[in-house]
Amino acid sequence: MQRTVIDGVPVFSAGGRERTTAALVFGVGLRDETFATIEVTHLVEHLAMAALPRTHLRCNAVTDVDSTAFFATGRPDAVGAFLEAVCRALGDLPTDRLAAEAGVLQAESCAAGSSTVSALWAARYGLTGPGLTVSSGPGPEYLSEDTVRAHAARWFVRGNAALWCHGPLPTGLRLPLPAGPRPRRRLPVPRPQDGPVWTRTDVPGVGLLLATDTPDDVALAVGVQVAAERLRERARHARGLSYAVDSLTLDLAPDRREVALVVDARSGRDAEVADLVWATVGELCAEGPARQEVAHAVAGLEAELDEEDAVGTELADAAYCAATGLPFRPAAETLAAWRAVTPADVVAALRRAEPTAVLAVPDTAAWDGPAGTVRRPLCGIVPELPEGTLFRPPWHRRLLDPAARVALVVSDEGLAHRDADGDVHGVPWSRVEALVPTDDGRGVTVVSRDLCTVLVHPDRYGRHALEAVLDRAGPVLAPAPGSREPALLPA
Fold it and tell me: Which of 439, 436, 490 is closest to 465 using CA atoms?
C-alpha cells in the first residue's frame, strides 16, 4: 500500500489489477445530523451523483452511519473523470433538483426500516449520534436549499476526505474539492447507567450492545466473536431458534467503541433467544472462553484476511480511518494482536464492558428480563404526571373511547403525556428536538431527544393546549419551499 496526497486529499493505492476500483470517502454520515435534518447527507450524495453525465461506468455512492463514499470500477481514465466530476459537483450542487431527489429519497426509504442495531444505538444515545438511525425524521421535504448547501460546505471538504484506489492510479488525477478542515464531530452523550440494563423495542431480533473506552480493544473483539460462535451453535444448530448471528463495531471516537451482537429469532421464540444471549455472555464474563475457542476466532480472522480482495479491504479501511480521524492498524498488526489474546484477556475485556451492556428484545416477547437486571424504557418514562396545567379530551370522548383516556400537562419545566396504557412520558423543554406539523396543519407532534413523541392537537386537547406548547417549544418545522403546502398553525 502506498500513500500519497493529491490536492490536499490523502490517497491510498495499490496495484495488482488491470482495471481500477476507487472510492472517495468522507467522514460524515447519519450520526452527524439532527432529527430535523435526517437524510441531509444522503440528499447531498444524491445531488452530487445527479450532476454527473450519463455513463456506463460501474459507479455508485452510499451514505452510512458515519461515512459517505463515492466509488467506481473501470478503466483508470474513466474512474479518474468520475472522481473529478464528483468533487466539482460537491462544490456546486445542482439544487434545482432538490425536490426531485427528495422524492427519490422518499421512495428509497419506503423499503427501509429500523434495525435491531439502530434500536440498540437509540437505547444508548436517544435521538443523537448513531441513535438517529432509528428514525426516518420529519422527511426530506423539510430540507431547504440553505440547509443542504451549508451541510455540504461544512462536511464535503478536502480536510474531511480520503481516497483509496486498487489498480492503476488514474494519470493526472485531480480532486478539486472545496477547501476546508475536518469539522469537529459532536460526540453523543450516552444515557447514564450504573450496570447492565434491558429494554423493549419495536423491531424484530434480540441485540446486545457493549461499549469500551479502550482504543482498538482486540480482546473484546475476540470475546464477541467467541460469543457469536457459541450462539450459532446453541440457537441455530442445537435448538433451531435462529438463522443469523451477526456483530457490528462502530467507533465514535478513538476512545469510544460500540460493539453490537444481534441474533434473529423464530416467531414467538424471542424470549428463548434473549435468555441464550444473556446467559452466553454471562458465562464468558464469569469463566472465559476455552483456548480452542480463542484459536477458532483467530482462524476466522486469518481466513478473512486471506480473501481475494483483502488488499482492497485494507485500502478501504485506511481511507476510512483517514477520513474519520480514527487510528489505522494494518491487517498484519491486527492479526498479530488477535494471536496474542489469551482467555484471561477476554474475561477482563468482557468484565470491563459488562456494566455498559444494553439488551434489547422485541416488545412482543413474553419475557420479564434477566433476573436482577434493571429494565430501562426505550423512551423518557416518568413515574407520574408532574404539576402544571392539565389538559384532557372531553369527558364524553373519554367515556366512549379508551384511546381518548389520555392527559397532557404543560409546565415551565416541560411537557408530560399520559398515554392510553397509563405510561407517563416526560419531555423537558430542553430535550425537545422538533415540533413537526400534523398532516392537516392544525397540530404538532413534539419529538423528544429521549425518543418520546407527543401529539398535541386542538381536536384532542383544545386550542389552549396547543398554544401553551407553541409558546414554550416553538418554532414549528416548515417544509422547504415548493415541497408542499405550509402548515396552518397560528403565528
Answer: 490
- For the chain, the maximum distance between any two Cα atoms, rounded to a whole number of angstroms, is 77
In the chain, the N- to C-terminal Cα span, in Å, equals 60
Q: Residue 486's pLDDT is what? A: 44
pLDDT value at residue 112:
52
Instruction: Give residue for cell 405550509.
Output: 486
Q: From the DSSP assignment, how many helices (H) and strands (E) are in the chain? A: 14, 20
Indicate the angle between helix axes 343-353 and 218-231, nearest 10 degrees: 90
Strand pairing category for 161-166 and 9-14: parallel
CA 276 to chain centroid? 26
Gyration radius (Cα) of the chain, Å: 25
Strands ordered across the beta sheet of 197-201: 245-253, 256-263, 206-212, 358-362, 197-201, 374-375
Virtual torsion, Cα 286, 287, 288, 292, nearest 10 deg? -160
Residue 465 near residue 483, CB atoms below 8 Å: no
Which strands make up the sheet holding 389-391, listed edge to edge?
Answer: 381-382, 424-428, 414-418, 407-410, 389-391
Q: How far is the C-alpha of 38 from the C-alpha of 192, rounded, in Å? A: 25
Query: Rounded to an integer, what distance in angstroms lies between the CA atom of residue 130 and that of residue 444?
Result: 25
Residue 491: per-residue pLDDT: 40
Q: What is the pLDDT of residues 109-147, one digit of tens each?
A: 754 556 999 999 999 999 999 999 999 999 999 999 999
What pLDDT sits at residue 301? 93
Distance between CA 419 and CA 423 in Å, rounded? 6
What is the pLDDT at residue 56? 87
- Residue 290, all three cell numbers: 476455552
Q: Which residues of the chain have pLDDT under 50?
A: 111, 485-488, 490-491
Contact 297, 229 (CB under 8 A): yes
DSSP 329: -
Q: Is 348 exposed, middle or buried (0-12, 13-18, 19+ CB in 10 A)?
A: middle
C-alpha 226/C-alpha 291 separation (Å) is 10
**Rounded CA separation 93/90 (Å):** 6
DSSP three-state, residue 285: helix
